[in-house]
Amino acid sequence: MNYKRFKELVRGKEKRTVDFKLESYVFKIKNLKLKGELAKDICAMANNGNVASYIIFGVSDSGLSFKSVNNEKLTDDNIQTFCKKAISPIPKVKLNRECWKNADSKHGEKIFVIIQVGPHARRAYRLNQDFISYKKSLCFRRNEVWIRRGSTSDLATPE
Fold first, then answer.
1. What residue stretches are annotated with the Schlafen AlbA-2 domain (predicted)?
2. How many other CB atoms sit within 10 Å of the CB of residue 86?
3. S-S: 151 plus which of 14, 18, 28, 54, CB 3.0-4.6 Å?
4. What is the DSSP string of 48-100?
5. Does domain 3-155 match CATH 3.30.950?
6. d(CA 63, CA 28)
7. From CA 57, how far away is CA 81, in angstroms rounded?
């Protein structure tokens, strides 16, 4: 992704096709909740249809704060393997790690991780496994279909 496109994505707030995460420890520490949240978010983005959607790590929910992503386990290989196990059918995802030399001061010297999801033909992407931990109030079930509604991910209804 080029820097101009990155700035366009972060200039607006979170929306149906863009989700911000300031930090990510997924794959770095064993945590079912982190994996469940990531599976839910990728599933919801995959259900956006024939548009590319983005999960951008290193950007606060407001889009005003930026932090370098320090997670060497957050790689394209790990995302591909994770999606094969966690989501069905397997969505098209691509992870890029970006650090622009000629960036504005607020983005300069920072590493951002960008997961592009899709575009996909219209079909229902669903979770392929359970992510359940009652101690952590986490319950994402196999075969649940998640969608984006504005800036949030919601469980799809049968209608």
1. 14-155
2. 22
3. 14
4. T-SS-EEEEETB-TTS--B-----TT--HHHHHHHHHHHEESPPPEEEEEE--
5. yes
6. 24
7. 19
Q: What residue type is 75 in one-letter code?
A: T
Q: With contact defined as beta carbons under 8 Å apart, do 79 and 95 qualify?
A: yes
pLDDT digit string, tens, across residues 115-153: 999 998 878 999 999 998 887 788 999 989 988 888 889
Report pLDDT for 159: 63
Q: H or E stretch including 39? A: helix 32-46
Quickly tell me which residue has 């669903």 as its tokens.
126
Q: Tell me the two tokens of residue 6.
A: 């990155």
